[in-house]
Design brief:
Neuraminidase, single chain, 0% helix, 2 domains, Jelly Rolls, 49% strand, mainly beta, globular, five-stranded antiparallel sheet
Amino acid sequence: MTVTTTKRLACALMLAALAGGPSAFGDGAGKPGPITLAASKAEVHGSTLRYEPQPNKNTLGYWTRVEDWASWDFEVAAPGVYDVEGLIGCGPGSGGAVVEFRLAGQSLRLNVPVTGGFQAFRPMKLGRVAIPRSGPQRLEVRALSRPGPAVMDLREVTLRPEAAITHGLLVFGGETYLLDGSGTPLRTYPGATRDGWLLPDGHLLLAVNKGKDHPGGAVVEVDREGKVVFTFEGTQSEVNTVQPLEGGRILLTEAGDRPRLLEVDRSGKILVDVPLRAQTKDHHLQTRMARKLANGHYLVPQLLDKVVREYDATGQVVWEAKTPNWPFTAIRLDDGNTLVSCTVGDLVVEFDLRGEVAWQVSNDDLPGRPIADACGAQRLPNGNTLIASYRAGGDSVKLTEVTRDKTIVWTRRDPKRPGIHHFQVLEADGSLPPGRPLR
């Protein structure tokens, strides 16, 4: 097994040699040090946001207009992966603003907490970014909302080099297994799967391939010891997706002469039955990773129909996007866009609310053409996209992580395992990360 990241920093990072510009320091042993972007060196855009130089402040303050924003221009001598931290202050009555930090084609969002006062500064971990190349960089900080009188005070932003990108993974396909960030197997399931989830109690909820034990496919839940605690047998040709829902319900899709989406309870009782408008000449190429949305609708990628459709609870199509190839994974993002992986097209496309292409990445954009049947995909909290390659055999790349500007920052190979159908990104210790997984 081999995991690669962006090229490590070979020497202490150096910034632009501009008088008074931001600076980075090494530890004297050739290791890179943090990059600190001080409020005093920010460029302010707007009418009220300003730098406050008083010693007890030394901050960007008076941020009372959402339209105002700040930026820093700096240079790095070598690429690297960084943890980003902000020194934030926020007074009572002004919490809850959403602020976006944009750098190197990636974005990190902070829901600003009350810290006890605008000069009661607290360090806030914002997330991780990959700076893919040396040269000029720009960090922008913008408010997306301001529910109170002010957004926040910002004294400085610090970028600390990270040793490596490490993903724990729950993998589905010809083999089903859970890995920690070092690639060490923690758990396995003795069967092929299409989709699944690590649940908060440590159980695995799986969409299991059709076979001798499950002629129509199945949904199976196993505990930490591998004991089966729930089974729902498919009644048609295949079960192609599964999703845990609130109240213990489970979503699944069935492929067959009557393609449909179901919600069932833990007794196996069907509570919701939504007919899907999919072709029936090829059951296997009807649907894949369907998901229930926050609005109660269902997002369904339909492979051979080359379309992603949003259905309401009655089976009416309320939105759709035509895809350039077979859609496999469809993910509704927080901004309303929809991220779609297109299997044999070897590309991932992001559609806006009108069904038009807002962003895409394919092998034509990437050195080495690493995508081989783009099945599973997940949008990460830092804005990067992780893409599975189902037809990747041998020592070929089986997972590829790309930034918004289409730079590869991480890959995974494993010559002993087959290609990956879908996956769930976990913490490095194999536990569930916080937040809603965009997968």
